Amino acid sequence: MKSGRTGSPGLRFRPDRSPQLCAAATCEEGLMIFIVLGEGENGPVSVTCETPVAALTRARLLFDEGARDVLIDADGQEYAPADFNRLFVRKGRIEAEE
């Protein structure tokens, strides 16, 4: 596996921790951490996000930059961006409106 920059600022793969281990991490305050994973031009990339909207935005950015197999990991479960949007982002907006 390669590490380092993929041509996008802030997108790094951490070879010292597998994506599964990273995805299991949560903040001490009990907040969920979202891991955006993809296969970039120079190898695998991953980035952590603190909110569902940030994770979806980063996934779209990765896809726009040519990454393949873009997934969002939420608490150990991987989702395609469209499914993640439906389950986390839209659902949160509907609940906030009620």
- Structural class, by secondary structure, is alpha+beta
Largest sheet: 4 strands, antiparallel
* Averaged pLDDT: 74
Strand order of the largest sheet: 2-1-3-4
Query: Which H/E pattern describes the elements?
Result: HEEHEEH
Feature tags:
four-stranded antiparallel β-sheet; alpha+beta; disordered N terminus; ERH-like fold; 98 residues
Summarize the structure.
The chain is an alpha+beta fold and 98 residues long. The protein is 37% helix and 24% strand. It has a single domain, classed as ERH-like fold (2-Layer Sandwich), CATH 3.30.2260.
Would you give an account of this structure?
With 98 residues, the protein is of the alpha+beta class. Helices cover 37% and strands 24% of the residues. The protein has three helices and four strands, in the order H-E-E-H-E-E-H. Strands 2-1-3-4 form a four-stranded antiparallel sheet. Helix 2 (52-64) runs antiparallel to helix 3. The longest helix has 17 residues, at 81-97. The protein is globular.
What is the strand and helix layout of this fold?
Layout: H1 19-24, E1 34-40, E2 43-49, H2 52-64, E3 68-74, E4 77-79, H3 81-97
Antiparallel strand pairs: 1-2, 1-3, 3-4
Helix pairs in contact: 2-3
